[in-house]
Amino acid sequence: MSNVQVVIPLFPKFTALDGIGPYEVLQRIPTIDVTFIAHQRGEVRSENGFLGITADATFEDFPRPDVLVFPGGVGTRPLVHDEQVVEWVRNVHKTSTFTTSVCTGSLVLGAAGILKGLTATTHWSCYPELEAQGAIPTAQRVVEHLDKRIITAAGVSSGIDMALRLVELLVDRTAAEAAQLMIEYDPQPPFDCGSMAKATAQSGDIMLRVIEYAQLRQ
């Protein structure tokens, strides 16, 4: 029996942890193979340009992966208009075991039409954009529609949670717990400010200003 084939697309200005978080979980499982893909093989730089990750294959090389994990980042905005990528996602979902996203990767799933009328999540600052793609935004950290083989995760770090759930679904709970232990994922942050529901007015205001500045620089 062949291994489960997981692909994680890369694109200019992707958010590093969106892809690396799930990768760190999934690559621990001997029966799962993870491949980073892009329009072309070679290095792709993250949203601030500080980090480059090598894509070892192209979209065309993986027309029918078992699992798609689409990361987010400001670079997803052009992708929703990239018909090659959108059509690839649409076709992949026809045969995938699971089609998933992290952060604004859900915008690309939405552009492919597979989130229409479904609850889904993304980074808290992008709910209007997700809604514009036909989904129903929710603040839930991981949103599952297992009957439709779709899972979306909220911003950045939530991809780790989603990947652990994927391991449980693809293998079993013991494997997921072992992966969690291996990466010592036992969050104990010094501050309880990881969502807008918990954020102080001051921290929320600062983040909104940062996001507005980043949007102006796009």
Task: Show the helix and strand layout.
Layout: E1 4-9, H1 16-26, E2 32-38, E3 42-45, E4 52-55, E5 57-58, E6 67-70, H2 76-79, H3 83-95, E7 98-102, H4 105-111, E8 119-120, H5 127-132, E9 136-137, E10 142-145, E11 150-153, H6 158-170, H7 173-182, H8 201-217
Parallel strand pairs: 1-2, 1-6, 2-5, 6-7, 7-11, 8-9
Antiparallel strand pairs: 3-4, 10-11
Helix pairs in contact: 1-6, 6-7
Count of individual beta strands: 11
CATH architecture of the largest domain: 3-Layer(aba) Sandwich
The outline comes out as: globular
Q: What is the radius of gyration computed over CA atoms, rounded to a whole number of angstroms?
A: 16 Å
Kindly estimate the percentage of residues that lie in beta strands according to DSSP.
15-25%
Looking at CATH, the homologous superfamily of the largest domain is Class I glutamine amidotransferase (GATase) domain
| Uncertain residue segments | none
Question: Which percent range fits the helix content?
Answer: 25-40%
* Overall number of structural domains: 2
- Overall mean pLDDT stands at 93
- Please work out how many helical segments DSSP would assign: 8
Oligomeric grouping of the chains: single chain
**CATH first level of the largest domain: which class?**
Alpha Beta
SSE-based structural type: alpha/beta
Q: What name does the CATH topology of the largest domain carry?
A: Rossmann fold
Q: What strand line-up does the widest sheet have?
A: 5-2-1-6-7-11-10
Distance between the termini: 45 Å
**Major sheet attributes:** 7 strands, mixed
Instruction: Name the helix and strand elements from N-terminus to C-terminus, one letter apiece.
Output: EHEEEEEHHEHEHEEEHHH
